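Lab notebook page, bench 4
Experiment: in silico fold of construct C2
Operator: M.H.
Input chain length: 108 residues
Purpose: comparison with the prior construct
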Amino acid sequence: MKNKFLALLTPVILGALATLPFAALEWSNGEQFKQGFPYPVFIPMWLFASAFFSLLIPLAQDIRARRDLLSDKLTLSLRLLALVFLVWLWIGFVSDQMPCFLGVPNCD
């Protein structure tokens, strides 16, 4: 049970750490959350990052343990495709919200 909890906790913490600089940027350049914390912006960012790390960590562990990754090509292909898709979502979301993070008024 402890291993499963840690396996879930690590991507969640790494996702929060990946999102935290953007929250700090929003806070320092914005209105310091006078309208409240922008949950609709940061929850998807955190979820995308957490999902990315939850797929990447087992893959990195398999590589470090020198396991044969090519034995199950379908799983590897789907995992890599999901990683690329999550990176694409993350970059698109961050580039769309970057004016808001930088404090541009009336950004959407």
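Observations: The chain has a mean pLDDT of 86. Residues 2-101 form one domain.
Next step: discuss at group meeting.
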